[in-house]
Amino acid sequence: MKIRLGTMFGDIIRSLFRRPATQLYPYERRPTPERLRGNLVWDPSKCTGCQLCIKDCPSDAIELIVLDKVAKKFVLRYHQDRCTYCAQCVVNCRFKCLNMDDQTWELASVNKEPFTVYYGKDEDVAFLLEKMARDNAGESGCPE
Fold first, then answer.
1. What is the pTM of this model?
2. What's the average model confidence in pLDDT over 19-34?
């Protein structure tokens, strides 16, 4: 294959006088697109625990942990690393307690721990995390 030097140098000279096509991302930000599907947001006050969102999630990214069904105490465990951001859970939620946030979309991280998010009332989430810690301590054979 023969490369013509004149053509190549012409391209080089032209590109010296053009603006770069890339943007300096962290420093120059564009507005987010209108219908962007970002992070999942859950409103526990509207949730009835029907679990349609869990049944319709193709990637098993949502878990609804029922603490007390009568008192409507639920904690939603959301695995961001599994989510495909298809919004199927949002579409099928009858009570409109799930939404995709269009402002929270920068979700990169160095480790996997922050990719599991617990939604719910603060006291319910604290109770669940304490219970999980106790259960894990009991499984490891450590005396309590």
1. 0.69
2. 80
